[in-house]
């Protein structure tokens, strides 16, 4: 009976962790193919997912978000919350926003997990009008 219970617990934990996006992810520039930063995604007490830059892998032209709007304007890139308010709906995370610190523009955001990769889509209006970056899981 213990083996059955342990197997059930292990399987249940596996199902719940399958589509989780929490953790550190290496961002890859979809235009150059080069690694840009490490973003850490966490789930906050409101049940939504947020992501902030924790490390820069390429030297930016500015160390702050000079073109960002609102509370992000002029903030250092390290620690900058670029993803806000994503909710898990089925096999994707959606309903939030992502900001491009390079130009300061904010987009609607949808993330789908594919193994140890995230397909991060930023778009305006409809999801068809946008672009997708593939981010890679960072272990540790």
Automatic annotation (TrEMBL):
Query: Pfam families in the record, alphabetically?
Result: DUF2147
Q: Where is the DUF2147 domain?
A: 23-137
Source domain of life is: Bacteria
Tell me which positions the record assigns to the signal sequence. Answer: 1-19
Q: Which UniProt keywords apply?
A: Signal
Family annotation (PANTHER family): BLL5882 PROTEIN, BLR1215 PROTEIN
Q: Tell me what this protein is called.
A: DUF2147 domain-containing protein
């Amino acid at each position: 009976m213990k083996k059955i219970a342990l197997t059930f617990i292990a399987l249940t934990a596996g199902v719940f962790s399958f589509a989780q996006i929490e953790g550190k992810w290496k961002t890859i520039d979809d235009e150059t193919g080069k690694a840009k930063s490490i973003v850490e995604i966490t789930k906050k007490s409101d049940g939504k997912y947020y992501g902030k830059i924790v490390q820069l892998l390429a030297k930016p032209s500015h160390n702050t978000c000079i073109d960002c709007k609102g509370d992000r304007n002029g903030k250092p890139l390290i620690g900058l919350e670029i993803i806000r308010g994503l909710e898990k709906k089925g096999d994707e995370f959606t309903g939030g926003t992502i900001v491009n610190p390079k130009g300061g523009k904010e987009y609607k955001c949808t993330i789908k997990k594919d193994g140890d990769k995230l397909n991060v889509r930023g778009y305006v209006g409809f999801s068809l009008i946008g672009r997708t970056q593939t981010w890679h899981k960072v272990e540790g």
